[in-house]
Write a structure and sequence with these properties.
The protein has 366 residues and is an alpha+beta fold. The protein has 18 helices and ten strands. The chain has three domains: 173 residues, Transcription factor LuxR-like, autoinducer-binding domain (Beta-Lactamase); 111 residues, Beta-Lactamase (2-Layer Sandwich); 73 residues, Winged helix-like DNA-binding domain superfamily/Winged helix DNA-binding domain (Arc Repressor Mutant, subunit A, Orthogonal Bundle), CATH 1.10.10.
């Protein structure tokens, strides 16, 4: 759902503030702190928390709470009640869908749950909860929860408003986790630069190149002919995509931030990530990757899918169209599209191009 939903002027302003906050940093704590006030006002709540979950080798939880702490979610405390967390099963069953507590279990059961009783013992009184599961990668998930401490249920409009931000939340968590996996803070670019298998450019729009890793130079020379380059030194296809992204609003960027080119030997992908800046122009990192034509479906992805979905996912990794897949399997195009939607939801990918990117990361991390 995009910003075209029926919001009043104040809600539009708050939603824009949340989106700006989600893109203000590549640090989980800074992003959450920046987004907390406008989000709690946009979907009126008293407190919020983000749960980061690793699914392999075992399910592992890390709670991040901006603002006043929530003792119930502290490591040892939550571990003692996590098996009784009634929120988990409903949101796992309906990823990317915002649920309120009334959709998770009846009020009587809610009040008798160990989680609720323990919250009262700790003086919290988490009377209502609204949550959404954010699939990031097959082995990594996020869950955002908003809480009310008074007996005033979340209206359906709150869920609708939060739903309009779901893909922005997924994008923010993905960007932060990608950066955290490589390095932290000011050492990120140096860390990337020193890795021989990492290809990236840093560009200050409209066309000033700030940095180019050695492997990026190799790929650019291999990918593009001399006539493909702009006077700035950037390949025209990438410059045109960057120019378009700079002009787009945040909602439209979500669908265009991965450039993919199909070649005889495989796919070439570039992921565009807007870098945070406290002042001055925002720079962009262009993360480049080559994906062989015969890229296998990663085991972690296959485990999440039915046999038919796994079969279709393999064709998607060959960049086959829905029509080609339908013809090959002897099924309707609409049936293929339904499987594709299920694959995207289960794997937490935004598009077919993102499926290629995430499959490549799992086969050979970028």
């Amino acid at each position: 759902m995009s910003g075209s939903m029926n919001l009043n002027t104040h809600e539009h302003m708050l939603r824009d503030r949340v989106i700006t906050a989600l893109n203000s940093s590549l640090s989980f704590s800074e992003v959450l702190e920046a987004a907390r006030a406008p989000l709690l006002e946009l979907a009126p709540s008293d407190t919020m928390a983000l749960c980061l979950m690793r699914t392999t080798p075992v399910l592992d939880f890390q709670w991040l709470v901006p603002g006043p702490p929530i003792p119930l979610l502290d490591g040892d405390e939550y571990a003692s009640v996590s098996d009784h967390d009634f929120v988990r099963a409903p949101i796992f069953a309906r990823p990317n869908e915002v649920l309120v507590d009334e959709e998770m279990l009846p009020r009587g059961e809610y009040e008798h749950s160990l989680l609720y009783q323990r919250s009262r013992e700790l003086g919290l009184g988490l009377e209502h909860v609204m949550a959404v599961l954010l699939p990031i990668r097959p082995d990594f998930l996020g869950a955002l929860a908003l809480y009310r401490t008074r007996r005033r249920a979340f209206p359906s409009r709150c869920a609708t408003v939060l739903s309009s931000l779901t893909q922005h939340l997924v994008n923010a968590v993905r960007n932060c986790s990608d950066v955290q996996a490589l390095s932290t803070g000011a050492h990120l670019l140096e860390e990337l630069y020193g890795r021989p298998d990492t290809a990236y450019l840093v560009v200050e729009p409209p066309s000033r190149e700030v940095m180019r890793s050695p492997h990026a130079a190799v790929l650019l020379e291999r990918w593009f002919a001399p006539s493909d380059f702009h006077a700035s030194g950037l390949p025209l296809p990438l410059k045109e995509r960057l120019d378009a992204l700079v002009r787009m609003d945040a909602d439209k960027r979500l669908e265009k931030n991965v450039w993919t080119s199909l070649q005889e030997d495989g796919y070439r992908t570039v992921r565009f990530v807007e870098l945070p800046a406290r002042e001055g122009p925002r720079r962009w990192a262009l993360l480049m990757n080559e994906i062989p034509m015969s890229i296998p479906l990663p085991v972690d992805m296959r485990r999440k899918l039915t046999p038919r979905e796994a079969e279709i996912a393999k064709y998607l990794l060959r960049k086959w169209s829905s029509e080609q897949i339908a013809s090959e399997l002897g099924i309707a195009v609409l049936t293929v599209d339904t499987h594709v939607r299920n694959i995207r939801n289960k794997l937490g990918v935004d598009s077919r191009a993102d499926l290629l990117y995430q499959a490549a990361r799992l086969n050979k991390p970028v």
